[in-house]
What does this fold into?
Amino acid sequence: MKRAVIYDEEDLIVGLAAFAAEIGIKLVLCATGGESGKLKETLQGVLGDLFSQEIIVGQGSR
It folds into this structure.
């Protein structure tokens, strides 16, 4: 199984994560410098059953 790390703007991460998950790529890390605090919640909503609790979701500069 292929694995991926996605780092970019929050809206682009959501689209790329959905595409990657649908074609069978395991997401390892989704991170952004943005600080909305809603990336994990948005990913869970968009990915639904494809969202894994093993995905590390990072936001902000810390």
About this structure: Residues 3-58 form one domain.
